[in-house]
Every structure is written in C-alpha cells, then in structure tokens.
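Hi R.,

Here are the chain sequences for the assembly we discussed:
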Amino acid sequence: MTQSDMNEKFVDVVSKITEIGKDWHSQDLVTNAMANLPYTEKSFKDLPPLSESKRNSAIIVSAGPSLHKFDVLAKLKQSNYPGAIVAIDGSLVKCLKNGIIPDYVLTLDPHPTRIVRWFGDNEFEENTRNDDYFSRQDLDVEFRNNSIKENQENIDLINKYAPQIKLIICSSAPKNVVERAKDAGFDMYWWNPIVDNPKDPDSLTRQIHQINKKSCMNTGGTVGTAAWVFANAILKVPTIALTGMDLGYHSETPIEMTQTYYELQEFANTREELEQLFPTFIFPLSNEQFYTDPTYFWYRNNFLDLFSRASGKTYNCSEAGTLFADNLPCITFNQFLNSEQ
Amino acid sequence: MSDLLKGNFTTKKQVTKPNETKDSDTLESTFKKAALNSIGGSMVYVERTDLTWDGED
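And here is the predicted structure of the full complex:
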C-alpha cells in the first residue's frame, strides 16, 4: 500500500506528525543538550574500530512484539553470531536476560520519566504512579505483573554489564537517564539528533550542535531507526539485519486495543471511515495481515525514506509487521544467521 | 454581536463574530493528543536531509 492509495484524512493525519513532534520536543532538546554538556566527552569520532568480523555484519535488536514471538534472542544466543549487535534502550534488558551483551545500545528519547525504566529506575514507583503509558500496552507482560521486583533485578543486571557496553546516547537524553547511565558505568558516546535542515542558519539542529559540537544523526523519529542509521552511516557496516522492527499490529489485534483508537474516532463518521485510518499490509514471508496506525505509518515512511538514500544491504528479519519494500527484502532470522556463519 | 457586549454606538465597519472553533482546529488538536499518546516513549523527529551532519555547511 502506498500513501497515494490512502484516504485523504489518513494522509492529512500523517502529515501533521512531524510538526507535532517538533512543537513538543524543541525546548527539551536544547535544555537537555545544555544540561548534558558537562558529560558529553566522547563522540562517534572516539569509537574504537570494530574487529573484522563485527565490521562486516550487524544485527539491530529493536523491541517490537516479534522479538518475543519468534524467540529472536534465544536464536541469536545459540548462533554464536560473530557480527556486531546493536540494541536499543527498550531491548537491552531482554538481551541481557538472554545472555547477550550488545556491543552498542542506542537511546535518544527526552521523556523525563519513562525512558529511565529501560535502564532500571531508582525512582520507579514515583515515575510510574500516574502514568499508564507502559501498562496499557503489552510491551512486557512479565514486567507489568511483577514490576517492583523486576525493576530491581534490571538495576542489578544493568549495573553488572554496563561497563562492557557502549551507550550511544543522544544529547536529548533526560537527566535521570544520564545519571543512571553514569552510575551504572556505561561507556558513553554522545551525538545530536538531526531535527530540521542544519543548513538553515536558524535551524534547531545547528543550535544544538553549537552547544556541544558533537556529530548529528537522523533518527527517523524512533530509536530503532536511529540504531539502523548508526550501524549503516556511522559504523558503515555493509550488511545489516533488522529484528523486532514491526511498526504495526497483527490483524488479530482489535483496533480498539491500539493506542490511538479513541482519539482517531473523532476523525471518522462511520466504522468504515475509521478503519481507513488503519491501513493493512500483507507481510510477504507469511502472507499474514498487519496494519498500522498513523504514527507507525509515519515511522515506516521515515525509515523507507532514509533507507532509499543509504548504501549497503539491509534485510528485515522481523518476520512480521509492515516494514518491507522492493529494495528492502524480508528473510527469516534463521536464514540470515545461517548466511553469516 | 454577542448579547453580552452591546454598545450605544454604531461601528463604521460591520463587525462579524468569528467562529469560536473551526472543525479543522478541533481535528488537529484531537490528533495532536492521539499522536502524543502513541509517540510518547519513542520520538524525536525527522527531517529528510542527509543521514548525518558534522557541522560543516
């Protein structure tokens, strides 16, 4: 499905997301970059060179439902994969619990109370008391059912392994994530997000760069895409596999359970009109049906847009979701692992 | 003119009461709320230029 096939309302909704994000985050980005300045010592330029095996191939471990559904981390652990492993904040604990120590972990979101949870949150009860962001999603059922104990275990786990991990941390990171990362002992490398055209003299990206002079990187709006950009454009790894990059819901998920269902009802007069705001995709490997909402569709478009201007090979090994295109082949994770042995 | 604001004079130009809320504004704020709910945990934003920039023009 392409944007030209979609109904006008859906296209209109998608087109507003960039500006909404910009309005929402502009001040946080500058404030956080200034607050983080004393800690922004190392940047991409200080990353040590990769070993030969890690230089040739990388796996991006994002945190979509397919990561759990297809037992990706157990397969990865069993495979003794020799390439680089690039995780995101939301998949780090899952990796460690499966005995996988990622080479790199990306974090970028400036949210002041939510993101620190991925690193084990010393203020967990206070930060989650009036926020149902995680509990209304099935992101981690185990955690949701036993959250205080799980949080403490995550703190211990992160503290144990952080010194072995390079944290690729954006200047937009909030204070509590930075404090937590320092305490845990991550090896931190800083960067800035490209948030508008840096060649414009008044650009926000340029303003942030002026604060710390660190390299800037496009993120596609989500940390999973940022992880791929990092592997492709910074590490320059020629072959990359994506895992856990669903960017959509399985057709068995009722639209009533999606995050924006109630608000999107305002855009539609009938059930048929409402369903047009959740366009469907047939995943090519399985012929299963998935669908997006405007936000996931926006992430998907951003990824494919960035991907079209990148070099090297990327395979989507998520085995689910909406992220595929003629130039972005989908293969099973096992196929990818076998090809890398 | 609103019943709450009546003067004892006549304006030179005709005064028309603006619409308090346009449909498009309502939809925009509704979507803003929806987007913020869904993007809450994972967003900066994208500008479709190059993948990286090092401060050089």
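Residues 304 and 338 of chain A are 26 Å apart (CA to CA). Chain A touches chain B through 60 residues (CB under 8 Å).

Let me know if anything looks off.

Best,
T.
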